[in-house]
Design goal:
The protein has twelve helices and eleven strands. By secondary structure, it is α/β, with parallel strands linked by helices.
Length: 321
């Protein structure tokens, strides 16, 4: 069975609670924790979108053993890659080597806010390659210069570096981004249990590297209440990555999801308190070659009940598989 992680979901949870929740996740027995890095939530109903890097600094101080990871940070528009490298190196120091930098080519939802438009996907991938090269150069230490099509470095140096370089986990959704992940990444990140994507990654240089996935669940002793909550807060997700990457604002996600019915979520989101349903959903990832699966409990107001259930029932069941 995969290593089971916990997701700090900035888009649904107040910042202070995110820090309290990750400490509780460590006590419950989760194997690692990831955090989303957004400017907007997908839907207005979600209600939050704290700055992930401030939360990460606090998370590093309230946890002792839990590996931490961005899931994922986009280094091509809202952040310059030199600044991402500095933030990641600082997190490597603060966490004493427990941090992995998850990187992706981003979503219009979060990147358009700086007013530079939203490039087509082939351009974004060229930008992404350059950004990764900038980050990797700065992780090597010393003064670095870089001249690219999209990004430049002028005698830049990181003065606070962890003892070991921060690992890079690269998000991919197809062969082109899969090639980027295989070339530059220490791990692959994917949003769906896509065996073909994992196989492509492995065949092109990713053999024996970790593969990270994410599974939304809606825990509640009342299955109907769980399904209703999933529909209210997670209906935006049915379109897949090609839709999610292009829509510019929460209102657009809401409009897109108008025709989504609660029943449309049953196949992808375990709802209720059925441990076997979650185990079966995790198996879909492991069967596709995933080594790590981070759970997302939908609904900020139900985290504590989720932790109690996970500690007593869910995590022991997953460990026995």
């Amino acid at each position: 069975m995969a290593e089971i992680g916990y997701t700090m979901l900035c888009e649904q949870t107040p910042a202070r609670q995110l820090v309290e929740d990750v400490a509780r996740a460590e006590r419950a027995g989760f194997g690692y924790a990831v955090i989303s890095d957004h400017y907007f939530p997908w839907l207005e109903e979600m209600g939050h979108s704290a700055y992930a890097w401030s939360v990460l600094g606090a998370a590093a101080q309230v946890t002792e053993r839990l590996p931490l990871m961005t899931y994922v940070t986009c280094p091509i528009m809202r952040y310059h890659p030199a600044v991402v490298a500095q933030k990641a190196a600082t997190m490597g120091v603060l966490s004493q080597g427990r941090f992995t930098l998850g990187l992706g080519a981003g979503e219009n939802l979060n990147e358009h806010v700086v007013g530079h438009g939203w490039p087509p996907v082939n351009t974004r991938h060229r930008m992404f390659r350059e950004a990764i090269e900038v980050i990797m150069a700065l992780f090597e230490g010393g003064y670095q210069n870089y001249t690219g099509e999209f990004f430049d470095l002028d005698s830049a140096k990181l003065f606070d570096l962890p003892k070991l370089p921060v690992p890079l986990a690269i998000a991919a959704s197809g062969d082109d981004s899969g090639d980027i992940a295989a070339l530059y990444g220490d791990a692959l990140v994917a949003t769906e249990p896509d065996a073909a994507l994992v196989a492509h990654f492995v065949a092109n240089g990713g053999r024996d590297k970790p593969v990270y996935g994410q599974l939304p669940i809606s825990y509640d002793r009342d299955p109907q209440a769980a399904l209703d909550r999933a529909h209210r807060l997670w209906r935006w997700s049915v379109g897949g990555w090609k839709v999610m990457a292009e829509l510019p604002a929460p209102v657009n996600f809401a409009a897109y999801a108008k025709t989504v019915r609660p029943g449309d979520l049953r196949e992808t989101i375990p709802c209720g308190a059925d441990v076997d349903a979650v185990v079966a959903a995790v198996r879909r990832y492991t069967a596709a070659g995933f080594t790590h699966v981070a759970l997302v409990q939908i609904g900020a107001d139900h985290q504590q009940e989720f932790f109690e259930w996970s500690e007593k029932e869910l995590l022991p069941a997953l460990a026995e598989v």
